[in-house]
TrEMBL record:
Record GO biological process: response to zinc ion; transmembrane transport
Family per record: Belongs to the ABC-3 integral membrane protein family.
Entry membrane topology: Multi-pass membrane protein
Name recorded for this polypeptide: Metal ABC transporter permease
Presence of the UniProt keyword Transmembrane helix in the record: yes
CDD domains: TM_ABC_iron-siderophores_like
A Pfam family this chain is assigned to: ABC-3
SUPFAM superfamilies attached to this UniProt entry: ABC transporter involved in vitamin B12 uptake, BtuC
Transmembrane segments: 6-26, 33-51, 57-75, 87-108, 142-161, 173-196, 202-222, 229-248, 254-273
Organism lineage string: Bacteria, Bacillati, Bacillota, Bacilli, Bacillales
Record has Nucleotide-binding as a keyword: no
InterPro entries per UniProt: ABC_BtuC-like, ABC_TroCD
Length: 296
């Protein structure tokens, strides 16, 4: 397989995996929690390195996943104690990320773990970091990890589809009929942490946040059907990946940065041209209302 193929496959897996999880985050108004997790996992990565003195991908994955789960738990604890959700996210995010930055600057200055790497990532190196699993050789480690996480997310979404749907749109009714709303919340937070951590090392925090928020928000503007929203979000994640890669190659720019930019561009187009929620549609609707009022 070619160099370009592996980069596009990795970015597409990030777009699809983050996109389907992002739909639930957008609908539940938890989008910024993805920003917190994508940054606080730095603490898990550096902690895993300090404990094992190894840059093994799975070791760092486990460390980052633990901190990602802790982030969601700490945010939920502060929220339950009366702290507003946005303030709770801000407190936990800045505190844990700051500790990670301090540890990196103190104990990992001579290795490739640095703040710039964690923010922007380096998807261009993905094709060279291959592993041999299940007797299959030459597949990048990021592709394996993202593929496994995508399968896990899809299975959980299919298993709890009705429960997620009801608890998302009417949590009071879901609790009244006995659905484990709290457990569903933590399952979603686990999916978010798993997805963010799997994507983090390959593409960096900026693209993870962009893919967790922008495709889902774009799909939200274009449809009100729950299942269609997941499909559109995955499609927009892939479109951002493909268009971002080729534009970055053309301009000799950051691949991850351009993919995040294209995710924003797709959202902007939907924000303007959406037939129901777009600026143009709203302007036309408001003009018609004004004309009717004037006639009466």
């Amino acid at each position: 397989m070619s160099y370009t193929f592996w980069i596009l496959l990795t970015a597409s897996l990030v777009g699809i995996t983050c996109g389907i999880v992002g739909v639930l985050l957008i609908l539940r108004k938890l989008a910024m929690l993805s920003d917190a997790i994508s940054h606080t996992v730095l603490l898990g990565i550096i902690s895993a390195y300090l404990v094992t003195q190894s840059l093994d991908g799975w070791t760092m994955f486990i460390g980052a996943l633990i901190v990602g789960v802790f982030t969601t738990v700490f945010v939920q604890m502060l929220n339950a104690a009366g702290v507003q959700s946005d303030a709770a996210i801000g407190i936990v995010f800045t505190f844990l990320f700051a500790i990670g930055v301090i540890l990196v600057s103190m104990y990992a200055s001579n290795v490739h773990i640095d703040v710039e790497h964690t923010v922007m990532g380096e998807i261009g190196f993905i094709p060279w970091e291959t592993v041999n699993w299940f007797g299959i050789e030459g597949i990048p480690q990021a592709v394996w990890m993202l593929g496994i996480v995508l399968v896990i997310d899809v299975i959980l979404l299919l298993l709890f589809y009705k429960e997620f749907k009801l608890s998302t749109f009417d949590p009071e009714l879901a609790a009244a009929i006995g659905l484990p709303v709290g457990l569903l919340h933590y399952i979603l937070m686990g999916m978010t942490s798993l997805t963010a951590v799997a994507s983090f090392d390959a593409v960096g925090a900026i693209l993870v946040v962009a893919m967790l928020i922008a495709p889902g928000a774009t799909a939200y503007l274009l449809t009100e059907r729950f299942p269609v929203m997941f499909i559109l979000s995955a499609v927009f994640g892939m479109l951002a990946a493909f268009s971002g890669y080729y534009i970055a190659a053309w301009l000799d720019a950051s691949i991850a940065g351009m993919m995040a930019t294209m995710a924003g561009v797709l959202f902007l187009l939907a924000f303007i041209f959406s037939p129901t929620h777009g600026l143009i549609a709203k302007a036309v609707s408001q003009k018609k209302v004004s004309e009717v009022n004037a006639d009466t």
